[in-house]
Design a protein that fits this description.
Radius of gyration of chain A: 18 Å
CATH superfamily of chain B: ABC transporter involved in vitamin B12 uptake, BtuC
Oligomer: heterodimer
Strand content of chain B: under 5%
Structural class of chain B: mainly alpha
Helix content of chain A: 25-40%
Shape of chain B: globular
Order of helices and strands of chain A: EEEHEEHHHEHEHEE
Number of helices of chain A: 6
Number of strands of chain A: 9
Largest sheet of chain B: none
Strand order of the largest sheet of chain A: 5-6-7-3-8-9
Largest interface: A-B, 32 and 30 residues
CATH class of chain B: Mainly Alpha
Strand content of chain A: 25-35%
CATH topology of chain B: ABC transporter involved in vitamin B12 uptake, BtuC
Largest sheet of chain A: 6 strands, mixed
Radius of gyration of chain B: 18 Å
Chain lengths: ~220, ~270
């Protein structure tokens, strides 16, 4: 089943200058996609289109699942008083935007996910006291709370040390293989990311220049 | 001390002030948590000056200030937030420009008409004597609305304050909640200005959240404790203000400052 289907999508804030040009791609259930590209290539814009945060001007996007999102780390979160539990639970708002309080079902869902990601025992800990790797795990848990089976991660390993990066990738790998979570990941860290992904999509100046199985992907292009 | 409290409570105008002050302190503290965390803390200061400007002009024209000041300050609050999102003008400079202009206009209009009399002084530095029955009723209604909205939107306010990008992705209209906070802040400022004074009202928005964050580490505990801290500081402040005949607003700010020092020390000890 296709989760995201994009057909001839173009996007730009001005009609003369298009950030994305004629993008077509399909993401299927169970995929582990890695989207790569330089800064300013249009990766983040593409993500925003998939999430429905950008109104598209041309083409179409069809999204068949709710997508859990892990944004890039922002500075404001560094001294924010919030426990792991509060953050993970806030992901479930996606399920029932109109309700005033969290339901029992929301709390159980959050508990299950926290247990699965080894966060349950430290759930009362404060977010800013956690290490970078733990923080990302919390945000992955929140993303999982807001979706059924698809998560989209924007630079999830940026600024983390190599050992932690491997842990995050193994976690994503496990979620993908064991729990059947479809993963769409944007990354700079191509050489390591492709070991875990099954497909790599490369974007350059708003155009998809490569969309290949990761085993066929060569860094730096086919020469 | 008990005698002093009994004596104090025997005055109807002080009872009114305590009722309004407690409600305003509570609302200001709740909103303050979001404002401080979103780095909009300065907005309180700017809005209070705008409130003063509008009030001064209204008084000069012989109008009742509150019904004009509330919508006026709300409009300015929304404009300030829009500018903040716009990034073309830095929001802190926008706040500085609007607030000093409003203050200047207020002072100029006052000089041309009544002159800087006690009434104006009361607006600047606050007075518990200045509260009329209609002010009291309005304050109570406004405070109850703020509290209800805060409870209803608590989950979403947390999500939006913590991570705007994520909230937008799950379908929350983040701007709507930021506007809501701005509107409620504007209303609380105008209502609280009478008691705390233009110059000092923003402190009761900022202090309680900062104090609570020294010790508490979950969002819920910070929200609840800042509400409690704010109310306790107000009670201590109004008691000291009555006993030693010091300006109420100033006393409350000083009590908050002392509380901040105490909590900072507690926070350091707890950490070790």
């Amino acid at each position: 089943m296709s989760i995201v289907k994009i057909n001839k999508l173009s996007f730009g804030y001005f009609s003369t200058h298009e950030i994305l040009k004629d993008i077509s791609m399909e993401i299927n259930e169970g995929d582990f996609i890695c989207i790569v590209g330089e800064n300013g290539s249009g990766k983040s814009t593409l993500i925003k289109c998939i999430l429905g945060l950008n109104k598209i001007s041309k083409g179409m996007i069809e999204v068949n699942d709710r997508i859990g999102y892990l944004p890039q780390m922002t500075e404001i979160q560094s001294n924010f008083p919030a426990t792991i539990e509060e953050i993970v639970l806030s992901g479930t708002i996606a399920d029932n935007i109109r309700k005033i309080f969290y339901t029992k079902k929301d709390k159980e869902k959050a508990k299950e996910i926290m247990e699965d990601l080894d966060l349950y025992d430290i759930r009362k800990k404060c977010f800013y006291e956690l290490s970078g790797g733990q923080r990302q795990r919390v945000l992955i848990a929140r993303a999982l709370c807001s979706t059924d089976k698809t998560i989209l991660l924007d630079e999830p390993v940026n600024g983390l040390d190599p050992k932690i990066v491997t842990q995050i990738y193994s976690l994503l790998h496990k979620l993908n293989k064991k729990n059947g979570v479809t993963i769409i990941m944007v990354s700079h860290d191509v050489d390591r990311a492709i070991k875990y992904a099954n497909r790599v999509i490369e974007i350059e100046r708003g155009i998809i220049v490569k969309d290949v199985p990761s085993s066929e992907y060569k860094i730096g292009g086919d020469k | 001390m008990i005698e002093t409290i009994q004596e104090m409570l025997s005055f109807a105008f002080i009872d009114r002030a305590i009722l309004v002050g407690t409600l305003v302190s509570l609302c200001a503290a709740l909103l303050g948590v979001s404002l401080v965390l979103k780095r909009y803390a300065n907005i309180g200061d700017g809005l209070s000056h705008v409130g003063f400007g509008i009030t001064a002009v209204a008084v000069a024209f012989g109008l009742t200030p509150l019904p004009i000041a509330i919508p006026g300050v709300i409009i300015v609050a929304i404009i300030l937030l829009k500018v903040g999102n716009n990034h073309k003008i830095k929001s802190d400079s926008a706040i500085a420009i609007i607030s000093s202009s409003a203050l200047a206009i207020g002072v100029a209009v006052t000089s041309l008409t009544t002159g800087l009399n006690t009434d104006v002084c009361n607006f600047m530095f606050g007075s518990i004597l200045a509260m009329s029955t209609s002010d009291v009723i309005l304050s109570i209604i406004v405070s109850i609305i703020v509290l209800i909205l805060f409870v209803i939107y608590y989950r979403k306010l947390f999500a939006v304050t913590f991570d705007e990008d994520f909230s937008k992705a799950i379908g929350l209209k983040a701007n709507r909640y930021t506007n809501l906070i701005a509107i409620l802040t504007a209303v609380v400022i105008v209502v609280g200005m009478r008691m705390m004074g233009t110059m000092l009202i923003s402190s009761i928005i900022i202090f309680p959240a900062i104090i609570a964050m020294r010790v508490f580490k979950s969002f819920k505990s910070v929200v609840i404790s800042s509400g409690i801290i704010s109310v306790i500081c107000f009670w201590i402040g109004i008691f000291l203000s009555y006993s030693y005949n010091i300006s109420t607003g100033a006393t409350i700010v000083i009590v908050n400052l002392v509380m901040l020092l105490i909590f900072t020390i507690i926070g350091k000890i707890v950490k070790e």
